[in-house]
Amino acid sequence: xxxxxxxxxxxxxxxxIGRVIFELFNDTVPKTAExxxxxxxxxxxxxxxxxxxxxxxxxxIHRSISDFMIQGGDFTKxxxxxxxxxxxxxxxxxxxxxPLDAEGLLCMANRGPDTNGSQFFITLRECPHLDGNxxxxxxxxxxxxxxxxxxxxxxxxxxxxxxxxxxxPIVIVKCGELELRRADRSSDVECRPWxxxxxxxxxxxxxxxSKRRKVRSQSSGSERxxxxxxxxxxxxxxxxxxxxxxxxxxxxxxxxxxxxxxxxEREERERIEADxxxxxxxxxxxxxxxxxxxxxxxxxxRMKFIDPELHYRQ
Length: 314
What we know:
Layout lengths: L4 E8 L2 E10 L5 H12 L19 E5 L3 E4 L32 E4 L11 E4 L16 E7 L1 H9 L13 E11 L12 H26 L1 H11 L4 E4 L8 E4 L6 H33 L13 E3 L2 H4 L3
């Protein structure tokens, strides 16, 4: 199962800091992971309960405790007392067996058992005090895949007041999902659109070539007769410049069957290469002209950013 990946673009005040990419554990906590993913894309629209967009965009990190965690996700009241899930209100805990034993873990913030909404926190170190004797207190549903050193640690360094509220606003200016695309591979015909055309053309050429050979083998005698009839007579060219009566006999070259087949194959290869070059040039122009703000994540193929304001808003 491919785990979904989402991202946050953070800004401190008016300064853009960078992007954090999360991997969600939808294999162990599917309901919690789907709640976070949908809140990143905003695809659920307006909440029927709070009349607020079910969307993390423009929400803030409202709590930051040095060497412990940073917390956000309250898009309704922006102070840690609000938030809402895509399921309407709160939803129950799923799996509490995963320990908070590392930095960069993505966990649900709650007010007790079965009170999960939209608030989350990112750990800055191991948190064994949040692990109970038999089960923990918070659902761990993801981890920071990229951007912990460059972004998360910078967010944790922002000064806070006596209630651990950042003195400068830490805003999620953009968020969404990274969609996995199949990577281009030279051996994979399905990955390149021009390969369909090339494969079809070459197959068609082989079929026609075999038919031609079969017809020639069945009527080789008549074919030779027709070629001999089409053969041009020998010409004699007089060299009138010198004034001699010498004449040079010029033989017209006769193309054999092997040369005929070789010429056809060579022309077909040239045509296929030309089609390939034209298709690659078209794909290059299409890629360079795209303005959808897409991203590319190395290691898992090309990724596409789905802008919820264009795809999901009515």
